[in-house]
TrEMBL record:
It catalyses: Release of an N-terminal amino acid, Xaa-|-Yaa- from a peptide, amide or arylamide. Xaa is preferably Ala, but may be most amino acids including Pro (slow action). When a terminal hydrophobic residue is followed by a prolyl residue, the two may be released as an intact Xaa-Pro dipeptide. GO terms for biological process: proteolysis. It comes from the Bacteria. This is Aminopeptidase N. Coiled coil: none annotated. Keywords: Hydrolase, Metal-binding, Metalloprotease, Protease, Signal, Zinc. The lineage of its organism: Bacteria, Bacillati, Actinomycetota, Actinomycetes, Kitasatosporales. The keyword Lipoprotein does not apply. Residues 59-228 form the Aminopeptidase N-like N-terminal domain.
């Protein structure tokens, strides 16, 4: 029998003020197991050392939530299934809201908040390495009041709220090991007042109403990074469909998008068409659901939240833009199925998503990938700071710089010219298949490309991804670029698709930071 506990709203204030437990139920601290040590407070990321945690690996999150749109109060019970990777005396979860009770393997555990988003948990007895564990956290809070370094992953809307941000988002609405290196499956159950909807990742497996409340139960059955988990609560117009392969499609649009509503629908409703085309480029779609959503938020970015990308209305302020849909759906292969092992590896997400836009432009007869590469290279002089950003390791401050996208796509055009179309497109399909639902470094891709092509490619990738200068005449000529230095060519003309592609340069900008 499954017993569920929903914290009554009347008790929420008490939970928010709860004093962290500091001993076990008998008033004694846990007796240490010989050799047991605390898990690391960070997973070891190069750019974000406080992200994620060490000592365990999560396999599943079960989130049972209640949300009040009028007050922005979120109450939750999270059940986390994990396996220890060391003998653990203590471990951390990432959570910005206030915990009221924690249990490990059914027993009350001590806990305390530290830093900006660390929940330190001390189980009643130390945990042995390679042991399955369950962690239950009861918590509550107002996500909009929680900020890290002055920015928030939670946006209030006129009728609710939205959790969508990169590289961190989970801490605003559930406790987690918040780093792409620790993926898990998800069940997300959200209770909201009747007339309000709750949108999340994956498949809507059930929906029920009782006593003025409606509960939505969502399931993501493939491994998912925590920042790719999303939650949107509000009033939406929802469209549903089924792909030719039988996948459920669900798109959602806030009812108050105003002048952007038509362009948003005209773009996102083409998600099935785009995904089917991307299958011809990257191989079979890796997940069990498809769609997108456009909430009424003031931000301007979009995000590849798994199976159901998030789009800000401003992405469609100048009319329909299918190119941004191509970008975010390309991430389902490059970024979601194959995720970064470290945030410095962001090129294996963004370079490929941008190049997919170039390929879509070619399909739509709005400029070939080569023409877009020519224009990108020729339109920026050698002294443009653009060329000082290294897409293969841009640094945390430039993680979403235009160079990671455009120069990152130039690297792929250079690779294509070096190894030929047959090997190039075999790599585009083979890479997400070989690393499906896993993580990878840029160096892993370089070795994979060398293996498939049979050519040494380290020098090519060093030139286009790691040197903080504009690649010179020889490298440009080798990449087939018509506007190599010294070439007598007319002023470059922007391909027809350039403006729409450039409009997506802010897709992952961290608004509000």
């Amino acid at each position: 029998m499954h017993r569920r506990i929903i914290v009554p709203s009347a008790l929420a204030a008490a939970l928010l003020l709860a004093v962290p437990i500091t001993a076990d139920a008998a008033g004694r601290g846990p007796s240490p197991r010989a050799g047991a040590t605390p898990g690391a407070p960070g997973i070891g990321d190069s750019y974000y050392p406080a992200s994620g945690n060490g000592g365990y690996d999560v396999s599943h999150y079960d989130l049972r939530l209640t949300y009040q749109p009028a007050t922005d109060l979120l109450e939750g019970t999270a059940t986390i299934l994990a396996t220890t990777t060391q003998d653990l005396s203590r471990f951390n979860l990432d959570l910005g809201l206030r915990a009221g009770e924690v249990r490990v393997n059914g027993r009350v555990a001590a806990f305390a908040a530290s830093g900006e988003h660390e929940l330190e948990i001390t189980p009643a007895a130390p945990l042995k390495k390679d042991t399955p564990i369950s962690v239950v956290v009861r918590y509550a809070g107002k996500p909009s009041e929680f900020k890290v370094g002055g920015w928030s992953a939670w946006q209030r809307t006129p009728d609710g709220g939205v959790a969508a941000q990169e590289p961190d988002a989970a801490a605003w609405w559930f406790p987690s090991n918040d780093h792409p290196r620790d993926k898990a499956t998800f069940d997300v159950s959200v209770r909201v007042p009747d007339g309000t909807q709750a949108i999340s990742n994956g498949v809507l497996v059930s929906q029920s109403s009782k006593l003025g409340w409606t509960r939505y139960n969502w399931r993501s059955d493939k491994p998912q990074a925590t920042y790719l988990a999303t939650l949107a609560i509000g009033r939406f117009d929802i469209t549903t469909d089924v792909t030719a392969n039988g996948l459920p499609v669900l798109n959602a649009y806030s009812k108050d998008l105003g002048a952007n509503a038509g362009a948003a629908r005209a773009s996102v409703e083409r998600s099935t068409e785009v995904a089917e085309w991307l299958e011809s480029v990257f191989g079979p779609y890796p997940f069990s659901a498809l769609g997108g959503y456009v909430p009424n938020v003031p931000s301007g970015f979009a995000l590849e939240t798994q199976t159901r990308p998030f789009y800000s209305p401003r992405q469609f302020a100048n009319g329909s833009n299918v190119s941004v849909v191509v970008h975010e759906l390309a991430h389902q292969w490059y970024g979601d199925s194959v995720s970064v092992a470290d945030w410095k590896d962001i090129w294996i997400n963004e370079g490929f998503a941008r190049y997919s836009q170039w390929l879509w432009s070619e399909k739509e007869d709005e400029g070939t990938a080569r023409e877009l590469a020519d224009y990108t290279y020729a339109s920026r002089p050698a002294d443009d700071p653009f060329w000082t950003v290294k897409p293969g390791d841009p640094g945390a401050d430039d993680q979403f710089h235009a160079a990671v996208y455009d120069r990152g796509a130039l690297a792929l055009q250079a690779l294509r010219d070096e190894i030929g179309d047959a090997d190039f497109f075999a790599i585009l399909k083979g890479w997400p298949k070989e690393h499906a639902y896993g993580n990878a470094h840029v160096s892993d891709f370089v070795r994979y490309a060398e293996r498939v092509s049979g050519k040494p490619l380290a020098g090519l990738f060093d030139t286009w991804l790691y040197q903080p200068v504009k690649p010179g005449a020889r490298a440009a000529a080798a990449a087939g670029l018509a506007a190599a230095p010294g070439a007598k060519t007319a002023k470059p003309v922007a391909p027809k698709s350039w403006r729409k592609i450039a409009a997506t340069n802010s897709v992952h900008a961290r608004d509000g930071r």
